[in-house]
Amino acid sequence: WIRTRSMEQKRFAVASSEHNGSIYAVGGFDENEYLNTAERFDPREHSWMRIASMKSRRGCHSLVVLNEKLYAIGGYDGSAMVSSVEIYDPRTGTWTAGEPMKELRGYSAAAVVKDSIYVIGGYKGEGEDILDTVECFKEGEGWKNVAASSIGRRCFLSAVVTL
Fold this sequence. Notes:
By secondary structure, this protein is mainly beta. The chain has strands at about 15-20, 20-25, 40, 45-50, 60-65, 70-75, 85-90, 95-100, 110-115, 115-120, 135-140, 140-150. The chain has one domain: Kelch-type beta propeller (Neuraminidase, 6 Propeller), CATH 2.120.10.80. The chain starts with 14 loop residues before the first strand and ends in a 15-residue tail after the last strand. About 35% of the residues are buried.
């Protein structure tokens, strides 16, 4: 490990993803409030740069890349779990509202397989309501429930390996 520059804003409960050689860090919590801010790390320059902020604050959410755009999915806005989705287009530097998921969820995992986003498990925010459902998003088709596992999951990660 090699230490590099710190982000412009301290944050945890942040979502991050790689896109075209840069690392994006979006939302999170700074010990005082949930954030809507976002940053991009350029490993060639070893520097962080602020990018446009999301419309809404969120932490404990997911961030994935589909069709050259970053999707910030679900999470907690400081008062409740949300089902909302925001989409960042690096070419225009703007965020737009996406179609919300069917369920409120944060602390979930998300992965992209081929041309679909899968959001797995999470927490609905009601007592011990840990979700065992999986939602799938495909452009032009929206969100649909595709599966349920026998055990609910939250606070975990997912990865896709393509050989």
